[in-house]
């Protein structure tokens, strides 16, 4: 679940007058860098799971049986995390088996019913279900319900269900490409609660597993998500209406299982949070020092924002760390230089803020490195030289497997950073079709092992949004278009979520 270190990708809506100065058909809101993701290394498959014990039910056993159930569940989990541990003994009672049709889990009259007795048929049926869910989850419950689904009843004993859930959780989290947790949530109320609690995502994070989705907005209140590995699209619920998202800057940041969108009102700021656990928008938690036009990046359940501008228009040196599990912001030491319209990335376990502007006229070419262990900032001179355009758009930067890349939009070039000597090497060109206005209107993101360019050509009355991908480990720069859809606007905001 840990996975994506996301670089800052606020392709956020900027004041339309800025883009209009450089191109007449510029978008009403400009793109600036939201939060791309640096993928943490994915661990090897864990050892095979021990056989699932069939557990006695309260209806046919005394309270002492419940203690045995808890012990068996603990032993099952222990045997998985510690392969040398002995497998727990088998009991003789089967567990609930939902009906499965066409690769998906459906409601049926027998859902949650328990079969007491020998257990041979039940064991075969149970393991068949586990295998089907693990292997066919990508075909289950397509669309918005793929992340959360309905609650269904279960009449089985609580202790047996918890033991079953423990084993099933460990089995499911062994897969690196599991996004359809709706198929698990639909089994019964307990599985539904388990998915909504986020525990499955915590398990995935501990195993070093991450699945990446790209979230982007081409309309001020509408968001879509795209799975680049399965070419799946999902439309998010509309954001709650707020005038600040219609006519001013907004930033986006994906962290943990949340998509945060930041907006600026006349004298204050607003934060909205979309949760993949509930498929809904809620008010987010305000920063200690609210801001806009900041640089940001996320790694797992944590994110850092740095710089930006407060409600009074002052350029900031301050930085904050957000924990999506505790929903708290922690103030960090200040940077050496105040900056706004900058970009952020995580690389090699450290946070970098790159470029930006110190004032309306002063463009910064230096970057700063924040050491999370020491709590200190270090200035890196000329880190972003040549990456900023005259419009002052945030540098288009992305990290893939701890390597930093940049899109030089003036020359339509892709460059790679050499951290040892603080230099950039040109690798090739950006895709031909994505169109930008001085750095606004396209997204440049790290998405697991991929580098993505998101944008598209504009024509009278419409256009296309295209997603182009390159996997650096596979060889020299060569872009492949992996997805597209009609759109009449530029990309206003974009963020990559890895969980």
UniProtKB/TrEMBL annotation:
Database matches in Pfam families: Kelch_1
Lipid metabolism listed as a keyword: no
Biased composition range(s): Pro residues: 44-54
InterPro entries associated with the record: F-box/Kelch-repeat, Kelch-typ_b-propeller, Kelch_1
Origin: domain of life: Eukaryota
Signal peptide location: none
GO cellular component assignments: nucleus
Stretches the record annotates as Disordered: 1-59
Entry keyword set: Kelch repeat, Repeat
Biased composition (Basic and acidic residues): 1-17
PANTHER family named among the record's database cross-references: F-BOX_KELCH-REPEAT PROTEIN SKIP11, GALACTOSE OXIDASE/KELCH REPEAT PROTEIN-RELATED
Descriptive protein name: F-box domain-containing protein
């Amino acid at each position: 679940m840990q996975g994506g270190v996301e670089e800052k990708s606020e392709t956020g809506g900027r004041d339309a007058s800025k883009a209009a100065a450089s191109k007449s058909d510029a978008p009403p809101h400009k793109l600036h860098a939201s939060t791309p993701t640096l993928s943490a290394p994915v661990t090897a498959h864990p050892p095979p799971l021990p056989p699932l014990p069939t557990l006695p039910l309260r209806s046919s056993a005394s309270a002492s049986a419940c203690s045995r159930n808890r012990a068996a569940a603990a032993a099952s989990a222990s045997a998985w995390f510690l392969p040398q541990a002995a497998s727990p003994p088998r009991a003789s009672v089967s567990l609930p088996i939902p009906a499965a049709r066409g690769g998906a889990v459906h409601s049926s009259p027998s859902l949650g019913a328990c079969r007491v007795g020998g257990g041979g048929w039940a064991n075969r049926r149970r393991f068949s279900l586990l295998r089907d869910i693990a292997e066919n989850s990508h075909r289950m419950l397509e669309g918005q319900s793929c992340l959360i689904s309905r609650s269904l009843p279960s009449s089985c004993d609580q202790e047996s269900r918890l033991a079953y859930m423990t084993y099933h959780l460990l089995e499911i989290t062994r897969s690196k490409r599991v996004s359809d947790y709706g198929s698990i949530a639909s089994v019964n109320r307990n599985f539904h609660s388990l998915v909504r609690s986020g525990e499955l995502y915590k398990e995935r994070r501990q195993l070093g597993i991450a699945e990446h989705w790209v979230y982007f907005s081409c309309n001020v209140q509408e968001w879509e998500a795209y799975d680049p590995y399965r070419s799946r699209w999902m439309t998010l619920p509309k954001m709650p209406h707020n005038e600040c998202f219609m006519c001013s800057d907004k930033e986006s940041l994906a962290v943990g299982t949340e998509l945060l969108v930041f907006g600026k009102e006349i004298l204050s700021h607003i934060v909205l949070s979309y949760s993949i656990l509930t498929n809904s928008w809620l008010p987010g938690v305000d920063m200690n020092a609210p801001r806009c036009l900041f640089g940001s990046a996320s790694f797992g359940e944590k994110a850092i924002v740095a710089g930006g501008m407060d409600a009074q228009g002052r350029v900031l040196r301050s930085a904050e760390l957000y924990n999506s599990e505790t929903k708290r912001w922690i103030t960090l030491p200040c940077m050496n230089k105040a900056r706004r319209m900058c970009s952020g990335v995580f690389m090699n376990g450290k946070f970098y803020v790159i470029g930006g502007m110190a004032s309306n006229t002063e463009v910064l070419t230096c970057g700063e490195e924040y050491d999370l262990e020491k709590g200190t900032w270090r200035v890196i001179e000329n880190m972003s030289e040549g990456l900023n355009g005259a419009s002052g758009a945030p540098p288009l930067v992305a990290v893939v497997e701890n390597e930093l890349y940049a899109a030089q939009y003036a020359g339509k070039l892709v460059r790679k950073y050499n951290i040892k000597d603080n230099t950039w090497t040109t690798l090739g060109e950006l895709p031909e079709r994505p169109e930008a206005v001085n750095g606004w209107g396209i997204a440049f993101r790290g998405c697991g092992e991929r580098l993505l360019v998101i944008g598209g050509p504009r024509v009278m009355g419409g256009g296309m949004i295209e997603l182009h991908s390159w996997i650096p480990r596979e060889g020299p720069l060569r872009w492949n278009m992996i997805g597209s859809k009609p759109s009449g606007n530029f990309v206003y905001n974009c963020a990559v979520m890895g969980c």
